[in-house]
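Handout, page 2. Input:
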Amino acid sequence: MKVAKAKGRLRGKQPKLRPAQEVHLVELWRGGKHTSTDLADLFNVGRSTVYRAVQRTGEPKATRRP
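Output:
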C-alpha cells in the first residue's frame, strides 16, 4: 500500500456510473415514467445506486408509487 501510494496508484473503488450516465439516470427519474427497479435494470446497477445518484442531485427521497 505504501509503495502504491508513493507511486500515486492508490485508488478506491471505481464508480459504477460515469457522470454522463448518472445525469441521464436522474433525468429519467425526474420524468416519472420509470421505477427505481426499471432504472437499475436499464443501467445494470443496484437499486441503492439509483437512490444514491438521485440523492446526490438533491432530489427528494423516492416515494412508493401506488
